[in-house]
Amino acid sequence: MTRHQKEIIIKNVFFILSLVSILILGLIVVFLFREGLPLFREVSLRDFIFGMEWYPTYSPPSYGIWPLIVGSLIVTILSSLIAVPLGVLAAVYISEIAPPAIKEVLKAIIELLAGLPSVVLGFFGMVIIAPWLQETFDLPTGLNIVNASVILAIMAVPTISSISEDALYAVPNEFKEASYALGATKFETITRIIIPSALSGISTAVILGMARAIGETMVVLMVAGGAAALPESIFDSVRPMPASIAAEMGEAPFRSGHYHALFATGIVLFLMTLAFNLIADYISQKFKEVGSATL
Amino acid sequence: MTGQTVSGNMKRRYLKQHLFFGAVRLSAIILTLALGGILFYILANGIQVISWEFLTAPPTDSMTKGGIMPAILGTLYLTIGAITVALPLGVVAAIYLTEYAKQGKIVRAIRVGVNCLAGVPSVVFGLFGLGFFVVFLKFGSSILAGALTLGILILPTIIGAAEEALKGVPQTFREASLALGVSKWLTIWKIVLPNALPGILTGSILGIGRAAGETAPIMFTAAAFFTAKLPGSIFDEVMALPYHVYVLATAGTHIEETRPIQYGTVLVLVVLVLGIDLIAIVIRSYMRRNKRW
């Protein structure tokens, strides 16, 4: 075997192995559908998505996941309302304002926050935030939308702030210099020049942060309360999709309607996060910052 | 315009700036307090439970007493398994993407694939692991199925970190080697990889931390509520720290009674995961300061 042939073989082997990620993504789709689609022999897609009643163990069972979808969306939106300002401001602080020493420490703090296992945050929500909420607002339970949103926000902040920070960092220095040269203050430069220039990156960060929150399982499983009904206030319990899957899969008889329904819920969840990711990818490609050369 | 209104205007502009900077600093303080508060609380409640016996004994009296040794061991097995799967695959994919691939449709597709894989919810990985490894490949609920599921979960992390590290090796290193007549593969093997190694290492350590802390992917693929014996092969179920916390805190009739064990287990898990992350962070900042190029 010549040296050239060997090189080609290595290159091709590496190429094939680098396709593994796509292969896995494909397998995920195949196996979710394989275990989830049989549900639709029993229930129509419309009744599944928009059905108001999730009683998978009743007889006859009803598999409507609308309350689950609404639960997922509410905790995601509410947690974004907390996490987006917090994450973006922290990113601005790190990239534009903080002295180098504080910057390093804060980056480490955010990274450690990202590293906290979700079950630990869920536990914290159960034993600390829940009793506190219950007492302060005189509620029947502290395991509710507010609690889940606060904890999810803690999980989404690192994603939002680290990606935003990269975007802010990539804004060419010339932009800032031009702004200062016109007599703008640092605040004006940040809010009117730097943040608008980095907006596509920040949007990507926000979308990925939301994707993180909607797919997060242990937190909503432990602190969202688990009521599969449409909530009337933010102090009501909900049962977001991941919580339902994680809580019930252990008890659902193998390949029963319930089992298929949980996989079908997984399909919905997967497609939602996939959409979030593809949108984020599209934005970051379309509005790629190309630096000062485009001036 | 008189001098006075100009300075009044300036004052207003600086006032806005002060308010904004205040908000920005506040956000940093909130994040610091959140991390500090959580860690302090866990440490304060967990430390009194930690003893040699807690770390080395199995649970007794239907898990209301005793230690958590099987769960520590189970997490160790699962994590080692996951990194064994993900590290080689991830590094090879990163080498292809940075060293071989020409920018084009296929590379773009691979990148999108990696990004989407990174965004898949952990519980969906659990479902996939159940459908594919446990049911289809008939591994059953086992260390093997759990480790493979965790392995593909951390694959995007490893690929990203390895790519970053490989890109950090200066182009001139490769050119110098190629100019000496060294083949492309040998250049990668002898020049690029050794220089990228610390970066790859940091990424894998972060991946290990992630794998050790995940619960949802192992719930249906590997984790057991309680095992009487330690696992004898990779086809056995195991106990795991995150799952142990979840089970004790939410299921069963002894939730209040086992609170101390829960705190202790949470503390062990946090020390393990954040300890791993901290090692990675320290290595990285050390590397940045002592960069040779």
Description:
The complex is a heterodimer of chains A (295) and B (293). Chain A has 295 residues and is mainly alpha-helical. Chain A has a single domain, classed as MetI-like fold (Orthogonal Bundle), CATH 1.10.3720.10. Chain A is built from 13 helices and two strands. Chain A has helices at residues 3-18, 20-36, 45-50, 66-97, 100-115, 118-137, 145-169, 173-181, 186-197, 199-215, 218-223, 241-248, 257-286; strands at 54-55, 62-63. In chain A, strand 1 (54-55) and strand 2 form a beta hairpin. In chain A, helix 6 packs across helix 7 (145-169) and helix 12 (241-248) packs antiparallel against helix 13 (257-286). Chain A is globular, with a radius of gyration of 23 Å. With 293 residues, chain B is mainly α. Chain B has a single domain, classed as MetI-like (MetI-like fold, Orthogonal Bundle), CATH 1.10.3720.10. Chain B is built from eleven helices and two strands, in the order H-H-E-E-H-H-H-H-H-H-H-H-H. Chain B has a two-stranded antiparallel ribbon. In chain B, helix 3 (69-100) packs parallel to helix 6 and helix 3 runs antiparallel to helix 8 (184-213). Chain B is globular. Chains A and B meet through helix 1, helix 2, helix 4, helix 5 and helix 6 of A and helix 1, helix 3, helix 4, helix 5 and helix 6 of B.
